[in-house]
């Protein structure tokens, strides 16, 4: 979807990494290793995005740590585009809103870290969720967004306990639905 608009695959992957979850911070070598690309090709794109002020670069010893520039005027728009690219808007619209008493839905795991692994880990927090309908809607959404969705339903109390007990699992999740929205 973004390929005709942004010709560099590395640039697309960097935008997904940093704009799908603005809490993401990463170093050049870490990104190159994650993407399976040379440090030079990643460096070129990091420099372009930094020069455009879309990314912040902060010296950290002998390395530079990169993160999304949340103060950039285009930040909200790019974030929405990335969300649509990943299909997160479709998940909220086609799955969560039809399930029953859902308090919130969060994306955790690789996608929350900005890694397009092909599998979206979705945590649905609520009571009385129709599991048969969830399976049906998940299958439809997977075809629509061309990604595997791995849903996990949790009661409110179980979610709060898990969030407190497993900080890594719920570190910087992406909120795709909330009754407060």
From TrEMBL:
SUPFAM superfamilies: Winged helix' DNA-binding domain
Gene3D superfamilies recorded: Winged helix-like DNA-binding domain superfamily/Winged helix DNA-binding domain (1.10.10.10)
GO BP terms: regulation of DNA-templated transcription
Protein name: PaaX-like protein
């Amino acid at each position: 979807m973004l390929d005709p608009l942004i010709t560099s695959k590395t640039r697309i992957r960097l935008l997904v990494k940093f704009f799908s979850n603005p809490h993401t911070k990463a170093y050049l070598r870490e990104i190159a290793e994650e993407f399976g690309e040379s440090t030079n090709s990643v460096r070129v794109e990091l420099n372009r995005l930094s020069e455009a002020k879309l990314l912040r670069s902060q010296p950290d010893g002998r390395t530079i740590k990169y993160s999304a520039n949340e103060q950039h005027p285009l930040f909200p728009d790019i974030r929405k585009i990335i969300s649509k690219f990943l299909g997160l808007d479709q998940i909220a619209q086609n799955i969560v809103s039809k399930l029953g008493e859902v308090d919130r839905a969060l994306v955790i795991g690789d996608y929350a870290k900005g890694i397009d692994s092909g599998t979206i880990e979705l945590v649905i927090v609520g009571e009385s969720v129709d599991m048969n309908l969830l399976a049906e809607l998940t299958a439809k959404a997977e075809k629509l967004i061309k990604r595997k969705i791995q849903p996990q339903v949790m009661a409110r109390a179980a979610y709060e306990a898990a969030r407190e007990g497993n900080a890594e699992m719920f570190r910087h999740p992406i909120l795709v639905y909330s009754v407060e929205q």
